[in-house]
Amino acid sequence: MTAGKPYLVWPVVLFGALSVLSACATRPEAEKTRMAPLELEKPASAAPWVRYKGWPSEMWNEYSTLAVAVPSTLSDPIKFDGPITGDPKNGEKLAFDRSRGGGCVACHVMGNPIPPLPGNTGPDLSEYASWGRSDEFTFNYIYDHRKIKPDSMMQPWGAHKLYSANEIKDMVAFLKTQKSPAKFKDNLENPNTRPVPVETRDNFDPFLNEAMAAVEKGKGLFSKEGAGKKSCASCHTDPGSAFKAWAASMPKHEPRLNKVIGVEEFVTRHARATTGEEYLMQSGGNLALSIYLRFLANGQPINVNTASAEHKQAIKRGTALLNRKIGQLDMSCADCHTAERGANKWIRGQWLGEFRGQIDHFPTWRTSRSEIWDITKRLQWCNVSVRANELWPGAPEYGDIELTISALNNGMKLSVPGIRH
Ligand code: HEC
Ligand code: HEC
Ligand code: HEC
Fold first, then answer.
1. Cβ 379 under 6 angstroms from ligand 3
2. Which of 96, 112, 136, 381 is 20 to 30 Å apart from 52, CA to CA?
3. Centroid of ligand 1 to alpha carbon of 348 (angstroms)
């Protein structure tokens, strides 16, 4: 109870009940319905936000993010007299180059031999020479497809400076050599027969899921006294029953902040206003308490409000964000996670899931990284992986997206902490 705004918030809690009886006409919203005390002034995450260590450090300031839509200049199609000449060998090398935005093979089967684990989010181009396209069309499609097919999930490779015009000419020359059906070593290499990954590990087995330790840690923190000699347990004596369904109803629009907040930001702000403990978003303590609070609601169907005016608006904003093309790779969430587009297909060796099924297990233990990721960190990674600057964890855009995806997951049962690759 030391920081920022407690003067205003604190008496509200103590005298909340009283105020309902007395002069409630001029009282602010928070007093009417015993709202949870929240600290409202300070940022809930490290500020200024700095990207995680070990993540790509590049910044993509000239491209759109979830917060800022940078209008893109579309390139006019370039005219060519006659066939395009280029170096097909170099074109092949470039098309396979993973350092250039993932390489064409992330989405297309092509080449002879085909490089390991091609994806199938785009069509098989191994017989592209027989598609009857002009060189000019192929060049312009690769350089900037947006004047030809605006809704494609392909990258505007030339316009977004991933390849030069001469390099694209080499790739056109390479594609003209693609004349025979792809030959795969085995079923694993063929993205159309590769077995779909199914997560079968028991996420509640502490020997498999290291995030189970966070449940115990969170439980411990719940009883830890802060500077004011109060712990969470001082006010919430029976969290198991008090919070049996709470986490399944999150995230929620918070009128005092005028944005949607999830469990993680609630923990930061509520702790500041009550025990005085500092649990910045993305800190170990925040993850532990957030996992513990969700653990108490395990088995409950996700049940976010989709009816209130604020939530309807937030879901509208969230839906627009899911469809916004962002980053140097110019991709939207929907490009990778809706069935009409990339979902239920392979992007190189990664199987793309649909939004439904994506949120019931967060925070999740990521075995490939030996880290717990909450939903915000996952969203940040999905930003950086299309070369878009991520936002800070408390960004309102992430709240809108979390609510929108949660609404698509309503009815699915919470199972936290999850475990994923
Ligand atoms: C993120 C997935 C993705 C990546 C990466 C990708 N493509 Fe595509 N590509 C597609 C999809 C999807 C289509 C199908 C048509 C469409 O929606 O654009 C396509 C279509 C094409 C076509 C066919 C156009 C036509 O109709 O004749 C060509 C040629 C092509 N891509 C070349 C490339 C090249 C070269 C690269 C690498 C520089 C590449 N693609 C990388 C997704 C991708
Ligand atoms: C000084 C008392 C106090 C302390 C300490 C306290 N809380 Fe609360 N908490 C409240 C009040 C008041 C509410 C409003 C709802 C209610 O009456 O239960 C609340 C609500 C909640 C809710 C439900 C939120 C909602 O919107 O209904 C959760 C979850 C919660 N607290 C968790 C915690 C955690 C975790 C801690 C420790 C970091 C903590 N509380 C510490 C007083 C406290
Ligand atoms: C280039 C493709 C791509 C784009 C674009 C993309 N993601 Fe992802 N996303 C992935 C991959 C790959 C995974 C890991 C495999 C999986 O679970 O689908 C993933 C995982 C996720 C998960 C966790 C799924 C789980 O079950 O653990 C969520 C949630 C998610 N993405 C949301 C988003 C949102 C929201 C956006 C837009 C801001 C987005 N993604 C953009 C590729 C993408």
1. yes
2. 96
3. 13
